[in-house]
Specification:
With 588 residues, the protein is α+β, with helices and mostly antiparallel strands. It has helices at residues 9-31, 38-65, 80-83, 90-110, 117-140, 169-187, 219-238, 244-273, 278-293, 301-325, 334-352, 358-361, 365-394, 402-407, 409-414, 430-434, 484-493, 541-552; strands at 68-69, 74-75, 194-195, 210-211, 472-479, 500-506, 516-517, 520-521, 527-536, 561-567. The protein has 2 domains: 9-399, Orthogonal Bundle (Ammonium transporter fold), CATH 1.10.3430; 430-583, Alpha-Beta Plaits (2-Layer Sandwich). The strands form 4 sheets. It has a 4-stranded antiparallel β-sheet with strand order 6-9-5-10, covered by helices on one side. Helix 6 packs antiparallel against helix 11 (334-352). The longest helix is centred in the middle third of the chain and has 30 residues, at 244-273.
Length: 588
């Protein structure tokens, strides 16, 4: 059996490895973002392939594989997959299908943690149905930019020079990177990522004065995703090879570029930051893989090495420019990894191709052809994605609400309190809560059939000293995360200066929210809450309770509980003071 032909076994094994890259992308994105969105990310990476499969069958396959039309700009859509069972090119169809899904999945990472799930599904459908198939037809489907035919004929300065993109640096990664850039730009940053001059979160780029790091919650998962992607990249780059010698050469150049990209990023960040950056080094591995994808079959080991070295530096520089200068929030570095290095890898073919590259022949012809190709692909992608994202923004909406983003898309989009069951801490960073300044009307919806009656705070006896000893009381307040800032300000206003804040999981008499797992109703949901503890003596307990109730009250289930305890004694460790004096400022 010919395992290297277009219908061969290796061709299909390579395509299967490309499909498994979905798992790698899902793990990278999940690990590099926060736990409260893990379920949402898994759903997106699952659904973009499943939804893309349907529209690719109905439209995309015809646009990429169909007969040329409009001077090679598009393939003629057809439904041959339904009518020509015996003669249909099933191998090429499946190969193009899994590559199409990869293009759509790249965008997920750059727009993670604040995109509506419905909007994500819609733009994944459009990318798989129209955007990728048309530009891929230009180069891989026999269109005007065909990698199999000279762009300007067989005579003259450009004689026999065809566009080079063996496995998709431009057709897949560059397109995914441009789409990511446009999507993240229109969507805006995550809340709390950028701060204004007063240290408050802002979504307006021109107001940004400070940039906050928002670390991912699981570096191990992200790293495992990178290893999976590297392994699957051997199918990504090697599937279309025609014999075992070419396959071995492609696998070698792919490995060399990935290794040199990894080392390059590690050294670059080590010198720049005085310590090697783990997450950026992982991005460096991917950058090297992306960059060599276009030329893996036409460059030698030396070319692959330098392509990787440049990619490793580019990815770190691009991440910082995009984040710190352009103020575009890309949680996983998709724009830098896929967009910037997809462009670099495609242009590098014009430099390092052993048969037509500038460094080997002295001719600029290949580099010019590469520039023409990426310019056309960029123009098509930009037009399509700007129109698509603007339509989504002004119709179904592109961005989740602020409260949904703060509390996590898992909870609001999927009814999933936590993707990690009982093992995860509350996923909201305290510093983000403190900077929120959320309006008081952002509250959970009132469960159906539950009547909430407003009652005024009960009168409590004033606290006074007994036998010359001031009474000490502990007040514990449990409430929603989004109300913490209001509570903190209210307590500060009445003179409460010392508080302890803990993020907890719990539920009240309503047993949390009514959600379902695998169709079965959960008996109890543990919801994220904030527990605030204060010990007072000088400030009356009744005043603390009243201030807390006023700050927390919305009239909906979930406003919280307040518990009051007697405290036997308090000791200040530094001075040894006890009782009333231990709770006072030294000035008092």
């Amino acid at each position: 059996m010919d395992i290297y032909g277009s219908t061969g076994v290796w061709f299909l094994i390579g395509a299967i490895l490309v499909w498994f890259m979905q798992a790698g992308f899902a793990m990278v994105e999940t690990g590099f973002t926060r736990a409260k969105n893990a379920g949402n990310i898994i759903m997106k990476n699952l659904l973009d392939f499943c939804l893309g499969t349907i529209v690719f069958i109905l439209l995309g396959a015809g646009l990429i594989m169909g007969e040329d039309a409009l001077f090679g700009l598009v393939g003629i859509p057809n439904l041959d997959i339904f009518t020509d069972f015996a003669g249909y090119d099933w191998s090429t169809f499946f190969f193009n299908l899994v590559f199409c899904a990869t293009t759509a999945t790249i965008v997920s990472g750059a727009m993670a943690e604040r995109t509506k799930f419905l909007s994500y599904c819609i733009y994944s459908l459009v990318i798989s149905a129209v955007v990728y198939p048309i530009e891929a037809h230009w180069a891989w489907g026999g269109g005007w930019l065909s990698t199999a035919e000279p762009l300007f004929g067989t005579t003259g300065y450009f004689a026999n020079v065809a566009y080079i993109d063996f496995a998709g640096s431009s057709l897949i990664h560059f397109v995914g990177g441009i789409s990511s850039f446009i999507g993240a730009l229109i969507l805006g940053p995550r809340w709390g990522k950028y701060l204004d001059k007063d240290g408050k979160p802002t979504l307006v780029r021109k107001e940004v004065k400070y940039v906050r790091a928002i670390p991912g919650h699981n570096l191990t998962v992200g790293a495992l995703g990178v290893f999976i992607l590297w392994f699957c990249w051997y199918g990504f780059n090697g599937a279309a090879t025609t014999d075992v010698t070419q396959l071995a050469q492609v696998l070698t150049t792919t490995t060399v570029a990935a290794a040199s990209g990894t080392i390059s990023t590690m050294i670059f960040t080590w010198v720049k930051n005085k310590k090697p950056d783990v997450s950026m080094t992982l991005n460096g591995s991917l950058a090297g893989l992306v960059a060599v994808t276009a030329g893996c079959a036409v460059v030698d080991v030396v070319g692959a090495f330098f392509i990787g070295v440049v990619a490793g530096i580019l990815v770190d520089v691009a991440v910082e420019v995009i984040d710190k200068k352009l103020h575009i929030d890309d949680p996983v570095g998709a724009i830098a990894v896929h967009g910037v290095n997809g462009l670099w890898g495609t242009l590098a073919c014009g430099l390092f191709s052993t048969s037509t590259g500038l460094f080997y022949t002295g001719s600029f012809a290949q580099l010019i052809v590469q520039l023409i190709g990426v310019a056309a692909i960029a123009a098509w992608t930009i037009v399509c994605m700007v129109i698509l994202f603007q339509i989504l923004k002004h119709t179904v909406g592109l961005r989740a609400s602020r409260i949904e983003e703060i509390e996590g898309l898992d909870k609001h989009e999927h009814g999933l309190p936590s993707a990690y069951a009982d093992f995860t801490p509350v996923p909201l960073a305290a510093e983000i809560i403190e900077a929120e300044g959320l309006p008081a009307n952002l509250a959970a919806s009132e469960p159906a059939g539950v009547t909430v009656t407003d009652t005024t705070a009960p009168e409590m006896p004033s606290v006074s000293a007994s036998d010359g000893i001031a009474k000490l009381s502990k007040v514990v307040i449990l409430t929603k995360q989004s109300k913490f800032e209001d509570l903190k300000q209210a307590l500060n206003a009445i003179g409460v200066t010392g508080i302890t804040v803990t993020q907890v999981l719990g539920c009240g008499v309503q047993k949390g929210a009514s959600e379902y797992y695998r169709g079965v109703k959960l008996d109890m949901d543990l919801l994220p809450k904030v527990k605030v503890e204060v010990v007072v003596s000088k400030v009356p307990v009744a005043e603390v309770v009243s201030a807390a109730r006023k700050a927390l009250y919305t009239g909906h289930i979930g406003d919280g509980k307040i518990f009051v305890y007697d405290v036997e004694d308090v000791v200040r460790v530094r001075t040894g003071e006890s009782g009333y004096n231990a709770l006072q400022d030294e000035e008092d």
